[in-house]
Design goal:
heterodimer, A: 147 residues, alpha+beta, 3 helices, B: 153 residues, six-stranded mixed β-sheet
Chain lengths: 147, 153
């Protein structure tokens, strides 16, 4: 793990927080403050590329399950990009909480740090989970550092 | 008339503050993914854990305690405040544990971190619950953290 300096870390924490505000408010006009134009979303390349694809995936319904980002750790890569691993939790209308993880590749653009690649994992969820059913953890230190 | 204790704020430089933040975040990633080989990146070899009704000393005992959580919970560390304590750093954070059922547990971590050759490491962690007041094993009150303790330590 190669440490990232505090200036970049401060900006990146802001960036990852901004993701949640943009997504939860469907504020697509702000999406270019968060993502690169060709952002890849998910590990399957054909699945989702670009902000317009994200808009299609998420739709227009207001997000009542807000995303809250925590536990950011960063690895500096020799090519200048940064691998970020953060945890999130969403709060549902009934007050229950769901937790998951993000692993990202961040690039520095003329306008600051942006997410070029974001992968999401819902973590370990039971069969009874109300938003999407069961799942298992798919991320690891190896996937954070090695991708 | 009682006077409020003065809140001691001894600022850390940004680099140290960020390094401390990462150590505290690493804990949650290690515990939730059960990747125990990374524990020495968080704790000193002789680190002490005090969870009021359980305690652990050294990484092997700490790992045993953390293994008992099982793979269905998620640990989030947030709201961290820090101060210098001589050459060491103290950190007071909140944690949020998300259970498989979606129900949550809230509590506090108070840590003492020491600067080793490999970076900052937790040498002692005190864990206290907040939102389970009626569920202690022996009917005693859960320990609560406060600024009186924070300032005195």
């Amino acid at each position: 793990m190669t440490p990232v300096n505090a200036d970049d870390a401060t900006e990146i924490i802001d960036l990852l927080s901004r993701y949640a505000h943009v997504i939860d408010n469907r504020d697509w006009a702000q999406a270019d403050e968060v993502f690169t134009d060709d952002v890849q979303l998910g590990a399957t390349p054909a699945l989702a590329t670009g902000i317009s694809r994200l808009q299609t995936l998420i739709g227009d319904a207001p997000a009542t399950h807000g995303h809250n980002t925590t536990d950011v750790i960063l690895d500096q890569r020799p090519d200048g990009t940064i691998r970020a691993w953060s945890k999130f939790y969403i709060v549902r209308g009934d007050g229950t909480v769901g937790s998951g993880d993000y692993q990202d590749t961040l690039v520095r653009t003329d306008d600051g740090w942006r997410i070029a690649y974001r992968d999401v994992s819902r973590g370990n969820r039971l069969d009874s989970d109300p938003t999407g059913g069961p799942s298992k953890r798919t991320f690891s230190f190896a996937s954070w550092l090695g991708a | 008339m009682t006077t409020q204790p003065t809140i001691v704020q001894t600022g850390l430089d940004p680099d140290t503050r960020w390094q401390i933040s990462e150590v505290l975040s690493l804990y949650g990633h290690i515990v939730d993914n059960q990747e125990w080989t990374y524990l020495p990146q968080v704790f000193t070899a002789d680190a002490a854990l005090d969870a009021q009704y359980t305690s652990a000393k050294g990484i092997a005992e700490i790992q045993k305690h953390l293994e008992s959580f099982g793979p269905w919970r998620s640990h989030h560390t947030l709201n961290t405040i820090t101060k210098r304590s001589g050459a060491e750093v103290s950190a007071w954070s909140r944690f949020l544990v998300v259970e498989a059922s979606g129900i949550t547990i809230s509590g506090d971590y108070v840590d003492t971190l020491t600067n080793t050759e490999d970076g900052w490491r937790i040498r002692s962690r005190r864990i206290s619950l907040r939102n389970r007041p009626d569920q202690t094993p022996d009917g005693q009150a859960w320990r609560t953290e406060s600024f009186s303790t924070w300032n005195a330590e």
